[in-house]
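User: Could you write out the 3D structure of this protein bound to tetrahydrodeoxyuridine? I've included everything you need below.
Assistant: Certainly. Input first, then the structure.
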Amino acid sequence: MDDELFQAAHAAMEKAHAPYSKFPVGAAIRAGDGRIYSGANIENLSFPEGWCAETTAISHMVMAGQRQILEVAVIAEKLALCPPCGGCRQRLAEFSGASTRIYLCDETGIKKTLMLSDLLPHSFETEVIG
Ligand code: THU
């Protein structure tokens, strides 16, 4: 099952549009419906307009009507492990719970498992807004 998530992240990485950084990233989310939603980073000539692989995957999940992230796999071919960037940690937190797992992968599979709370401790949470 986790291998399926890794394979999906790897396949997504192959679809990255990263001509500027030449740093393809793939992400795959297992959502509450048990299905996998994946994405790659999509860069733009106007550099700040590009976005991350995790963000693409979240978009696919939400547009499929899902709002719960159970687990996430992330891979970047040029890094031993690719922890999600700060912005993506916050975006993942929006749809994650205490047991959401983040799998950091290399070319061969999952190398490290983290809880989202490991990546984003003391996160912005308030009942006043949400
Ligand atoms: N990138 C991701 O896709 N996810 C991350 O968590 C880190 C960074 C992308 C953004 C950009 O296209 C490239 O990696 C180099 O920063």
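The beta strands are 25-31, 36-40, 69-76, 96-106, 109-115.
User: Perfect, thank you.
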